[in-house]
Amino acid sequence: MTRTVGITRTLILSLLLFLCCSFTAEAARIKDIANIQGVRENQLMGYGIVIGLNGTGDDIKKSVFTRQAMINMIKRMGMALTPDVFNQMKTKNVAAVMVTAQLPPFAKPGSTIDIHVSSIGDASSLSGGNLLMTPLKGPDGRTYAVAQGPMAVGGLSFGGKAAKVQKNFPTAGRVAGGAIVERSVNFSLPKNGELLFQLKEIDFTTAARMVTAVNQRFGPSTASSQDAASVRVNRPPDYPGSLVQFIAELESIDIEPDTPARIVVNERTGTIVMGQDVRISTVAVSHGNLNLIISESIEVSQPNPLAGGDTVAAPQTTIETIEEEGNLVVMEMGVNIGEIAKALNAIGATPRDLIAIFQAIKAAGALQGELVIL
Questions:
Q1: Between 48 and 361, whose confidence is greater?
Q2: What's the structural domain count of the chain?
């Protein structure tokens, strides 16, 4: 009896643990589904030069902007060269590039950020190149960071006149920590403790659940939703900690975001992604393929030894039509994603076929959800 009770308790605890894990897997933190208004990244961009390439840079005679950049750089270094010298430049170890970066929120002068470098000329590879000092500017035209350093290119390109081997894209690279922040973006958290959260996925149900979870944690009237895209939160007057501590505790609250009933298909790759809330009304699906097999053979027509005539090659063509049997599968109303997958797998549908089947079900008005075709 004792052993039976122990086994029963173990099963109950395992079931409770499974339920808890299932609930946790569906929940998400507020910091993962919403952002505070104003706390965001800022895009930076600059024009620079990469040097040290092994003959894979821009053609100076054809790339006018690369040539002009080289002339400006040499002049800034205090070297006075005649125009004839510039006309005779044939170097292939320089490439003009565009440098982009993301300036994170609250970035302070002296901190480093990653940069991405992309060729804008006719350079074949940036492998082994070194980026010279490049100012990175924001939309307002002010310099916020300065980039420089050796590049890491994740691609390669080798070949000759008759063959070429290329992997990934050798004309783009990355420099980890390659830019130093020189100016910070002026932004500060509101002194009155009023925060506006913007949902990454606009949804009324998710906004309502977020308001309910915040009010249960910090008391009524702490949060209120203005629309399906934003939630306003006020720090309680009796909160003992600072505004940063309040935001940290606020972002750790778990809620269950709501997702729309949607099927996303990519016709180019045959990829299909279905949401868990997709439902289908009662519908019958039949699928069959028509295969045509065309074979051609050559038969030689040769006359008898004493008969007149010529030897002729006569082609013989045969066409065979094979139509596979189409299984009729009935899907009852309100089936979930698991039953949909089982039913479609039963008729042997490939991803390409599933796309056509979903389009036909949507056209019949039996698909209760959105069909997105990429």
A1: 48
A2: 3
